[in-house]
Amino acid sequence: MDKQFQRSYRVGIDVGGTFTDVVATGADGRILVRKVASTPGDLSHGSAQGVAELLAANGIRAEEVDVVVHATTTATNAVLEAKGARTALITTAGFRDILEFRRVRVPELYNLAYVKPAPLVPRQLRFEVSERLGPLGQVWRPLDENSVRTAAARIAASGAEAVAICLLHSYANPAHEKRVRAIVEEVLGDKVFVTCSHEILPEMREYERTSTTVINAYLGPVMKAYLKRLEERLIELGTGRALHVMTSGGGQMSLKAAMNKPAYLVESGPAAGVIAAARIAKRLDLPNIITLDMGGTTAKTAIIEDAEPAKTSEFEVGAGINLSSKLVRGAGYAIKLPFIDVSEIGAGGGSMIWFDKGGALKVGPESAGSEPGPVCYGKGGRVATLTDAFLTLGYVNSKYLVGGALGLHGEIARQAIREQVADPVGIDLHDGAYGAVTVAVANMVRAVKSVSTYRGRDPRGYTLIAFGGNGPLVGAMIAHELSMARVLVPPHSGVLSACGLLMADHEQELVRSYPALTRECDPLELQSAYADLSRNAVTTLTAEGFAPEDIEVRRFADLRYAGQAYELTVSVPGTGIPVMAEIDSAFHDEHHKTYSHMSRTEPVGLVSIRIVASVRTPQPSEESGSAPDTIDAEAQPVTREVYFGKARGLHVVPVVRRADLRAAERAGPLLIEEYDSTCLVPPGASARTDCWNNIVITLEPRA
Amino acid sequence: MSRRFDPITLDVIQNALGSIADELALVIMRSAYSNIVRDAMDYSTAVCDREGRTIAQGLTTPVHLGSFPDAMRALVSQFSSRMADGDIFIFNDPYGAGGMHLPDFYIVKPVFDGGNVEGYIATLAHQCDVGGLAPGGMAVFATEIYQEGLRIPILKLHDAGVPNEVIFQIIAKNSRQPVEVLGDVRAQVAACGNGEKGLRQLIERYGVEDFRLYTGELHDYAERLIRAEISALPDGTYEFEDFLDGLGENPTPIRFKCALTVAGDQIIVDWEGTSPQVKAAINGPMPTTHAMAYLAVRCAIGVAIPNCEGYMRAITVKAPKGSIVNPNEPAACGARGVICFRMYEAMLGAFSQILPDRIPAASEGGSSAPHIAGRTRDNRPFLISGGLMGCWGGSAARDGQEGISNPAANLGNAPIELVESRLPVEITCYAFVENSGGPGRHRGGAALMRGYRLLEEEAELVMRSDRRAVLPYGLFGGLPGTPSWNFINPGPGQTVLPVCPFASVPMKRDDIFLHIQAGAGGYGDPLEREPGKVLLDVVNELITASYAADVYGVVIANGGVDEAATFARRQWLVKQGPLSTYLDHFAQSTGTQGLARRGPGLG
Predict the structure, then answer these.
(1) Number of H helices, E strands in chain B
(2) Left (φ > 0), alpha (ψ -120 to 50) or beta: where does A333 sit?
(3) Which residue of B has its CA nearest to A447?
(4) Is the terminal CB of chain A with fewer CB neighbours within 10 Å at N or C?
(5) DSSP secondary structure string, A327-385?
(6) pLDDT > 90? residue B96
(7) Which of B22, B432, B540 sits opposite A124 (nearest CB)?
(8) Could you tell me which residues are beta bridge partners of residue A609?
């Protein structure tokens, strides 16, 4: 596209709490990286700054940039910090408090001090209108338009900037919601941002739909303003042909779509990392992948099968970090949209080490953050952290981190570990540090299990892709605990999430409620329902400038045994008339795989149909050896003493560069130091690089 | 900590066990059929050691969590010499099998290693119907357990890997909802299989010797934690009593008298003085009484304790034989949930004397449990059920919250759209009730109301609720909560139902059953409530402006607090002494003026 303008570069911007990572790739497939400090006041400023620096440093003209893809924490932060718009909610009469009831369960037992999250719309801004639909969309009571006008007038007087409209059973019949929207717009004009539930989530379950609609409205004005600012800054730079935004489901959205459906932008950063891993898996033809993305505060893990990341629609924003997040709901705000299923726990470099009252050693979820940070930063941190343990064990360079940009203080780190971890239980300094790492690894193993064994998947058949600043340090240990045979550490592993932005496809996912037993379902009608959805998606994407022939549509069905409440999603291949028996069979197999039981005789119920329309993005194709080694050779010692626990003891470990693994496989122990992360290959394992410059660690089979 | 154990391995093993228990819970939730299990999450899971002692539990329902020990003790004592690899046990009998009431099915799988039982995977799920007098197994008016449905002693559901089809058939034939019950049983069985795999891997990883050592240490560890906390409490005996309204048209209050003794690092809960067992299905067999004591202590101490049985060693429970909290066979117990809540609140009331800053006033009194059942025109059974909750009492730190589960039964609510798409009912409302809850410096949570319109020709309603005569208690000057009401066709010509009807109530097409739950108790003097908070409640339409003036002495004018008028009004109210006008406001808001809250027998 647009070759006559030589717009050959694509740029990714991943805005995190501390750093903004900017990456770019051009016709040669090389990936260029720039890390700049985030600018909390106005994150668009740091983003533009990073792009400008990257272009300047690599001699790229702004006009050469084709697309900028953006992942942001702005949406998440707006919810966490309660900085969304003043939002009103319109509900069916009698159901004003649905949003506040939630699912009533609390996520913590035995805690009388528990406080549930305050509703994003306070009761005074929740208004009822008189109407009622039945579950098939039948009108039980017609819409009383006067009640809508009364509500709209009160909303106008309330100063609300956004309005969410969610009426019971509107997924089955949107007529009332549409009429309410029309009246609200008539009364309030275009000053307010309006979201109807049938537009964002036409699915059953009133609390989840209401909550999703409210979040979208709550974020609308904020995200619109933010994205506009970013677009303007990029236009100033001259790179503004197209700005796309990453979604939580791992696809890209146009700026316009993102402004209307900002609820899709929550948690877009973690999704990008998983997408990058999925592309690597596809390139290497690896069917089964588990990802581990460990940074400063948390570790995140996800599962990828046949290059498709597992998704979930049960997400809560602001739920904090919880091992059992799938069971323990209610701590945050529900968004029932497609999310890459990422399990997150509080184990990062900054995680604090402590003992509970019963004497058990704990790591996290409390984090020292980047200010004051771990003890070894020398910025006033007093509590021993995981990074201090890494340093004590010799895992990381005692003098420098981030290619020498960050000086570390080894002695005070060791002292903290000795006083706070080793001495209290009367063990050796190294054993104390190793213990902390072991506990953190156990926490991460539990997170990996929650995306694998909890879904009936045995991690032994999977390859671990480790990334993030700390992932490559612990990847081999986690793989060992789970008897996984192989760990892969991709190039640019410290900024892999940003790289994922260069790889994500442009996607539009549409879903429609379609309640029917499969055995009573008319395949022709089903096909035409799929065709309607596809047409909608293709129309939207072509309006955004994509050629119809570049758009690929995949079909899915959400199914359950009649009587169950939770669905499993299976693929409905092709575009022709669906074969109901094949759909049933795929469902039985998936049910068996996930829950280890099934019943071929029981009727299967179709709940919703969904399509994903995507436009493939050309993939960066960095070749072996093209990645620059940014480590200053002089600052790098040749060997380091590293402790591997009581059984394996202290080893003198060679410190090498990724390029050194090109020639031949090398036996562990090894440390591979890079600009943005360090990779640890323990004794008994071995490492090499493959033709894509990934480090491949092979573990010894466990006894 | 003993030298033999390192704190790192201990944490790692604890984590792995927790992971297994969570996985079990997830498998059941996702693949279960009944809405009691999948939406309300009325089920629990546990991993036990070779002696059947709990070493980890999935985070689900507190009432269940303390009940595994009695159930596992019964299983181990009866079967330990007769177990084979591949066995799966099933039971529900409260008398002899350690159960609590018949709907709760325990399904347990021993886990073998090297020919020995090295642990157990235990699951417990509330089945939606196991036969008996009324659909749902919660007929309050059952007088003996024989009327309450299928009683299962400890049986092998799978015998050395072979399913016993006879048991499945008997279960199916004895339920009004066989598809749901068998589906849920299958989910429990599947979860046992998953858990067994995980536990075996864990035992292999550490070896039998170490696994036994460390699980033993886990119990000691939990015990150390809780004893340290109990030691910090002042020694002494603290008494409290609370009441259940009673049953039917002429209810006699049922007393729950609790003496809680803190002695060094242990706690003794004694129910001496509690009412005798009743000829109704609200007796709580001993496993229930144990479970509630563990729960109350854990809530009161306010520190996370791992779910290992060891902590229970610090807690002793005494209950007179033949009392409602330790009934003799064959006392009925299907609806015993209601007394769980009362036991819990009596114990917390006692704790409030030593922990005034931590313990809140009484909640809504526990879940209300309506069951509307019948048959469709084509003779298919339907059952509209699902416990309703709730609100919390005010506390030293904050107002009581509304729209939240009772801490003693952390159940969820089923989506209304899902309910209406499957069952012949229209939910007519689900909202907070105006002017409800007990006033206080920190007010009690507002009550909820929910209405059900029947869309089939006829059905029978069985209702279990409480707290109309004896209101949820307030603390430290806070006032009691507001009463609970049940109506058929509220409005002119309405029928007022007893708080706990002692018979099923017939419903016809288009009849509306409306339940108003009790509102929670307040904490501290209402006249000390910050006027700004009163104003906010008015703005949020939780209370009316006249309620604000009459109850809190807060005068609102032009959208703000009139401070001078408020000062004067409050001085006047102080002179009036304790007030009950809030109950009049509540009655006006709910159309319950002039209705007697007590039966004729109570005056």
Answers:
(1) 13, 24
(2) beta
(3) B19
(4) C
(5) T---SSEEE-S-EE--EEES-STTEEEEE-TTS-EEEEEEE-TTTT-SGGGTSS--S-B
(6) no
(7) B540
(8) A512, A557
- CB–CB contact B410 A109 (8 Å): yes
Tokens 């849920």 locate to: B184
Is residue B277 assigned to a domain? no
Question: CA B350 to CA A563: how far, in whole Å?
Answer: 44
Q: Please check whether residue B104 lies inside any domain of the structure.
A: yes
Mean pLDDT of chain A: 88
Tell me the chain B residues in contact with residue A95 when contact means C-beta distances shorter than 8 Å.
416, 429-431
Write the CATH number of the domain with boundaries A506-615.
3.30.1490
Least confident of B294-308, B348-362, B501-515, B548-562: B294-308
Q: Residue B386 pLDDT more than 90? A: no
Amino acid at B311: Y
CA distance A66 to chain B (A): 45
Output the six-digit token pair for B572. 């006047």
Please, what is the average pLDDT of chain B? 93
pLDDT tens digits for range B160-205: 999 999 999 999 999 998 988 999 999 999 999 989 998 998 999 8
For residue B363, give the amino acid letter: S
Bond into B310 cis (ω within 30): no
Which pLDDT score, from 0 to 100, does residue A622 have? 64
pTM recorded for the entire structure: 0.91
Contact criterion met (CB below 8 Å) for B435 and B589: yes
Rg (CA), chain B: 25
**Distance, in angstroms, between A361 CA and closest chain B CA?**
6
* Residue B447 belongs to some domain of the structure: no
> Which long-range contacts (C-beta less than 8 Å, at least 24 apart) are formed by A37-45?
A42/A229, A43/A15, A43/A72, A43/A73, A43/A74, A43/A226, A44/A226, A44/A229, A44/A230, A44/A233, A45/A233
- Structure token digits, residue B320: 């007179």
CA distance A391 to A370: 16
B4 burial (CB, 10 Å; 0-12 / 13-18 / 19+) is: exposed
Indicate the number of domains in chain B. 1
CATH code linked to domain A83-218: 3.40.50
Does residue A3 have a pLDDT over 50?
A: no
Burial of residue B200 (CB within 10 Å: 0-12, 13-18, 19+) is middle
CATH superfamily, domain at A3-78+224-265? ATPase, nucleotide binding domain (3.30.420.40)
The residue with tokens 């040749």 is: A638
Domain ranges of chain A: 3-78+224-265, 83-218, 351-435, 506-615
Tell me the H-state helices in B89-150: none
Q: Phi and psi for A27 in degrees, rounded to 5?
A: -65, -30
DSSP state of A418: I
Q: Write out pLDDT tens, residues B209-222.
A: 999 999 999 999 99
How many C-beta neighbours within 10 Å does residue B138 have? 30
The token duo for A60 is 């790229």
Give the residue numbers spanning the domain of B110: 7-134+145-226
- Contact at CB, B431 and A97, closer than 8 angstroms: yes
What is the rounded CA–CA span in Å between residue B406 and residue B412? 10
Per-residue pLDDT tens over the stretch B364-375: 999 999 999 999
Do the Cβ atoms of A360 and B221 come within 8 Å? yes
A561 and B33 within 8 Å at the Cβ level: the answer is: yes
Backbone φ, ψ for residue A566 (5° rounding): -110, 140
Q: What average pLDDT score do residues B358-385 get?
A: 94
Residue pairs spanning A and B at CB distance below 8 A: 225
Sign of the CA dihedral running B566, B568, B571, B576: negative
Say yes or no for a CB contact (<8 Å) between A454 and B1.
Answer: no
Query: Which of helix, strand or coil describes residue B463?
Result: strand
